[in-house]
């Protein structure tokens, strides 16, 4: 098996840099350098990219493309010009300021053999010509799955002409991310070079919805954590950030029409996202090809509403909590109380105008509804699904009608469809988490589905219980205190997940993609990056490139590992504290010893 040819293949694949893997990639071995003077054009117009970052929302740049395609979203204006201009500046600054010297990726003390000589015969990339073949539309910036053609092509000739062509500005941004991954920093001259020319890449995503679900309610995450996460998502060609905004433990989002919600429901008054914060998150994401989807989970997972509005919640902090909810403090929206309906009307009236300019979706939650808690609900007094089910249907219908009237498409957790058997509009996207069979069950009912089986894509798993046990019987029963979804989902396990597993071929078109999840009981700003990365990168490649390669074979950990290790170094250089993929012994061209 370990023939010399096999060995050479392993070693060669080590430096084919790109993460996630392009659909098609051919390269040579010629060296090209790139310098800050490189001429960049966008649809024929020169782009004077600026060496410091700026906010494109407030900057109208004069460039090659006709700026007729400029869209007012709320009071932000997005245009292809401003978005591409900013992306060029950002990516080239990353290339020149945060370049990677690949000593960990070549053999011990072999960097000087890997690195090209930096002498007077250097050939430089003279131009990077970016062509966008179609004008963006408003849907480019707040797309439904499938609205945006994210494909791009990238070429570099041996005489130094680079091109990126794409249909949309989003595709241009993906092409730029790929472009900068082709270069390394020289260890002695600090020049930037690629040794892969000529390059030809044809690339497009396998799935239209490629997301991270981030729980910002179990622990408080200051803004910079979300901003940094958006940057990291963009590097990995994700296009959705789902913020699990609210839960029983805290309500960290200001609702100006209901000010007490966050004033009393946040962990501490002030630890909440203001409308300005939310808008900054949304626009920052849009400018990076990422759509933010906000979730208000309900009717379960809503105890935090009760700090401000106790009369809307049943079973507030009810004990024993294991009877009345999945996690303390218990509490669920009352189901047959007109005051709850009035509250929801006010809540959504407030939030919809602040979401609708930047997103096509709103997530209304619906996981883990506990029946017992409705025995305590004075407006219901029953735990029978035949009583509760129709009341949940009415609540969900109300919410979804209000969202639809403003053009938003609802998303729900799978339990609404598969456990409560609700009748949902055909527009509703159903997010699965429990099993592969759930994804198939959702599509069997004709619904669009998001995959993300918790046995593969829950990044919180394997840390052990967040509960403390006494030294009595519970200690013995629960020792060694494994959590509900142990073991840890290593990047290899994340990478082994196929979002289409178990879905019949004639229904795979309904699987719009998936999300990898970080629930935050044991994650806060201190360990966020290490909990999410590089494992989310593994999901990113599955969603962009597919579980199988072009020949239909499962992608191999053995060839993925060196590329992921390289991506990890590039992410660390941009300030994301990504954990290591392998020890340096393994990344230094000893791949055959570190695989089975
Ligand atoms: C592509 O790059 C790899 C790694 O440098 C190299 O081994 C391989 O020969 C290149 N392919 C071609 C066709 O030159
Ligand atoms: C822009 O929107 C924010 C809130 O989204 C609002 O406070 C501000 O007044 C608006 N500015 C203009 C000029 O409309
Ligand atoms: C530049 O370096 C290359 C590779 O080491 C070598 O072949 C070439 O002769 C050098 N040219 C000059 C002018 O030194
Ligand atoms: C990329 O290349 C493919 C194959 O040549 C072509 O079909 C496609 O139109 C190109 N896409 C763009 C955006 O140029
Ligand atoms: C809901 O409340 C109304 C008005 O109080 C009552 O007539 C109805 O029976 C209740 N429905 C259920 C299912 O409890
Ligand atoms: C309803 O509650 C009763 C009393 O607590 C319990 O015996 C029964 O199992 C519950 N039924 C359901 C469907 O949860
Ligand atoms: C929903 O349908 C499933 C399958 O038919 C059934 O097992 C379940 O009891 C139903 N749930 C409710 C709340 O009726
Ligand atoms: C490919 O991976 C899937 C899991 O994603 C696994 O079920 C299947 O057995 C693998 N196929 C082969 C041929 O190894
Ligand atoms: C899809 O394929 C399954 C077999 O895998 C078949 O039973 C079913 O009828 C097909 N459905 C449609 C709509 O063609
Ligand atoms: C690791 O790989 C490098 C070259 O790829 C080789 O020179 C070195 O001997 C290897 N080290 C071990 C311990 O196998």
TrEMBL record:
Annotated ranges, domain Beta-hexosaminidase eukaryotic type N-terminal: 18-182
GO cellular component, one term: membrane
Signal peptide range: 1-17
Protein name: Beta-hexosaminidase
Protein origin, superkingdom: Eukaryota
Any matching Pfam family: Glyco_hydro_20
GO molecular function per UniProt: beta-N-acetylglucosaminidase activity
Family of the protein in this entry: Belongs to the glycosyl hydrolase 20 family.
InterPro entries xrefs: Beta_hexosaminidase_sua/sub, GH, Glyco_hydro_20_cat, Hex-like_dom2, HEX_eukaryotic_N
């Amino acid at each position: 098996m370990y023939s010399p040819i096999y060995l050479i293949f392993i070693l060669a694949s080590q430096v084919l840099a790109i993460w996630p893997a392009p659909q098609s990639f051919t390269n040579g071995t010629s060296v090209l350098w790139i310098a800050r003077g490189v001429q960049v054009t966008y649809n024929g117009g020169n782009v004077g990219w600026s060496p410091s970052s700026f906010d494109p929302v407030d900057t109208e740049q004069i460039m090659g493309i006709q700026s007729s395609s400029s869209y007012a979203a709320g009071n932000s204006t997005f245009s292809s010009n401003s978005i591409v201009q900013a992306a060029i500046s950002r990516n080239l600054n990353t290339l020149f300021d945060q370049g990677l010297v690949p000593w960990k990726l070549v053999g011990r003390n072999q960097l000087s053999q890997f690195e090209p000589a930096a002498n007077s015969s250097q050939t430089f990339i003279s131009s990077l010509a970016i062509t966008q073949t179609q004008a963006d539309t408003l849907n480019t910036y707040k797309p439904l799955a499938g609205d945006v053609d994210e494909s791009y092509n990238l070429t570099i000739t041996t005489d130094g002409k680079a091109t990126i062509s794409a249909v949309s500005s989003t595709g241009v941004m993906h092409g730029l991310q790929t472009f900068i991954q082709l270069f390394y920093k020289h260890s002695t001259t600090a020049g930037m070079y690629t040794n892969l020319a000529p390059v030809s890449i044809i690339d497009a995503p396998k799935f239209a919805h490629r997301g991270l679900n981030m729980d910002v309610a179990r622990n408080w995450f200051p803004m910079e954590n979300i901003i940094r996460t958006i940057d990291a998502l963009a590097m990995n060609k994700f296009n959705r950030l789902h913020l699990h905004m609210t839960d029983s433990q805290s309500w960290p989002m200001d609702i100006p029409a209901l000010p007490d919600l966050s004033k009393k429901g946040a962990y501490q008054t002030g630890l909440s996202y203001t409308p300005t914060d939310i808008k900054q998150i949304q626009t920052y994401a849009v400018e990076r090809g990422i759509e933010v989807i906000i979730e208000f989970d309900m009717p379960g997972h809503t105890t935090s509403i009760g700090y401000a509005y106790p009369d809307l919640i049943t079973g507030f902090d009810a004990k024993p909590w294991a009877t009345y909810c999945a996690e303390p403090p218990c509490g669920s929206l009352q189901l047959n109380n007109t005051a709850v309906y009035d509250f929801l009307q006010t809540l959504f009236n407030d939030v919809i105008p602040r979401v609708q300019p930047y997103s096509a979706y709103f997530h209304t939650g619906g996981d883990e509804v506990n029946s017992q808690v409705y025995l305590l609900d004075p407006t219901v007094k029953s735990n029978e699904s035949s009583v509760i089910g129709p009341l949940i249907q009415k609540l969900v219908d109300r919410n979804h009608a209000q969202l639809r009237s403003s053009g938003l498409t609802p998303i729900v957790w799978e339990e609404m469809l598969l456990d409560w058997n609700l009748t949902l509009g055909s527009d509703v996207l159903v997010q699965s988490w429990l099993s592969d069979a759930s994804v198939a069950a959702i599509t069997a009912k004709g619904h669009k589905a998001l995959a993300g089986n918790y046995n593969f894509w829950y990044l919180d798993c394997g840390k052990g219980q967040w509960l403390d046990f006494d030294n009595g019987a519970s200690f013995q029963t629960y020792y060694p205190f494994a959590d509900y979804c142990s073991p840890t989902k290593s990047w290899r396990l994340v990478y082994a997940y196929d979002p289409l597993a178990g879905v019949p071929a004639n229904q795979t078109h309904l699987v719009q993609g998936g999300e990898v999840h970080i629930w935050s009981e044991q994650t806060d700003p201190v360990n966020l990056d290490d909990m999410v990365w590089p494992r989310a990168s593994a999901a990113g490649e599955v969603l962009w490139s597919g579980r199988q390669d072009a020949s239909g074979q499962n992608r191999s950990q053995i060839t993925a590992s060196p590329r992921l290790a390289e991506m990890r170094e590039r992410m660390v250089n941009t300030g994301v504290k990504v954990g290591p993929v392998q020890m340096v012994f393994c990344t230094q061209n000893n791949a055959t010893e570190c695989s089975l």
